[in-house]
Write a structure and sequence with these properties.
2 copies of one chain form a homodimer. Chain A is mainly alpha-helical. Chain A is built from 9 helices and no strands. The first copy, chain A, has helices spanning about 10-25, 35-40, 45-50, 55-80, 85-95, 110-120, 125-150, 160-175, 185-200. In chain A, helix 1 (about 10-25) packs across helix 4 (about 55-80) and helix 4 packs across helix 6. Residues about 1-5 of chain A have low confidence and may be disordered. The interface between A and B is large, with 44 and 44 residues. Chain B binds a DNA duplex through helix 1 and helix 3.
Chain lengths: ~210, ~210
DNA sequence: ACCAGATTTGAACGGCCGGTCAAGTTGGGG
DNA sequence: CCCCAACTTGACCGGCCGTTCAAATCTGGT
């Protein structure tokens, strides 16, 4: 049988990116060494530089790759939901770090922060970040447009509303991921839903028993 | 015995912190070397380690120091304004990177991002960040309470409203400081004012004429 | 079985930089 | 004026880590 040995080039490439993303999440960009990634991927350090021309390039690619993965998973899940209002709720569910138990601490947000800090100085990363962010706003705007078409949401510039809601999520998520004692996942979730309901003009079913 | 030269020592200490903050803003935390700080402060590298026990300590202190400075300047300015609504507007003015020309690009936000990334792994920095953030929310909440007392704003939990507005500012500021082509300072300012007016229940004077 | 090219290894190199230190300089008190 | 402690310097050390490279191994084709 073919042992585990033969790996296509593409597999290796992705394996290393996966390993790098894991290491960055765990140790932080600044503390990530090539040998850490090699260990995580189960290969020798030399091989990393065989597939990536430099450590910097590897880390940059890993960051956008990981954010890509997150985005794809999210939009896959959301596409399944028929109601725009429920789509929005689920997007918020997924965006609140640690809100849905099955998703762990949702450390993707930590990677975002690493992207930001790197984008401040790395033009390529700045470009990638802008695209990633645009896509994020876009997916919110799409939900809003769908809700407006179906009458679930009131009128208003969908892109502008998406910017506001998306930015609110960003700002709150930072504090939640930092384990701020005042800003719990529940509180973040509630804040997002309330602002969204006011901005989009729908009533929040208050869970009164 | 007698205190030796507390004044000069204190000056040096602060000079170095200032220099470090400048270097971090310019080059980023990851790229900041002790010798860079020494150059910026006009002293020898050895002296840096005479005043700070390690590079890590220095950088941590510099980050909180710089954010402190920003906060103090902001609250000094805001205290002068009588109307709560104008206080809020000015707080937003100051928070939008590059909105007020006289304040340059307001790179303090870049330092915030560095704080975040460091706070993810450094418990002391995490603690400091939480205090800094609490103070930031608090100063917004104070404005809101004043406005509610004077009748300028509607009712509502001031702390909750402050969290929402503060987080929105955070999330938007990130994108502005990244030079996102879609999120201009003007657009951020407008978004903040609109959400604030809706959340706080006051009318936005639409600039006619 | 053999070859050629692709893949993989790990040892070794070299630069960089945080931290140390011994030697100087300064300035105020006696 | 001298002395001592505080302050300041810059050379130096040592380790770390990104990168290189020659050699080993593997793979598929003939």
């Amino acid at each position: 049988m073919t042992a585990v040995r033969p790996k296509s080039t593409k597999d290796r490439h992705q394996e290393i990116l996966d390993a790098a993303a894991r290491v960055i999440t765990e140790r932080g960009l600044a503390e990530t060494r090539i040998s850490d990634v090699a260990d995580a991927a189960g290969v020798s350090p030399g091989l990393i530089l065989y597939y990536f021309e430099s450590k910097d390039r590897l880390l940059s690619e890993a960051l956008t790759y990981a954010n890509d993965q997150f985005y794809l998973r999210m939009s896959r899940e959301i596409r399944r939901i028929p109601s725009a209002r429920e789509q929005l709720r689920h997007l918020i569910d997924l965006s609140v770090p640690g809100y849905l138990p099955e998703y762990g601490r949702l450390d993707e947000w930590a990677l975002w922060i690493e992207v930001w800090v790197r984008a401040l100085r790395d033009p390529q990363m700045a470009k990638d970040r802008e695209l990633l962010d645009q896509r994020w706003r876009q997916s919110i705007a799409d939900i809003i447009r769908a809700g407006q078409a179906s009458g679930e949401f009131g009128e208003g510039d969908a892109d502008e509303l998406a910017l506001r809601i998306g930015s609110l999520i960003d700002g709150l998520a930072i504090q939640v991921i930092m384990n701020d004692s005042q800003v719990t996942p529940q509180r973040m979730h509630r804040a997002c839903m309330e602002v969204a309901s006011r901005e989009l003009g729908f009533a929040l079913e208050t869970a009164g028993a």
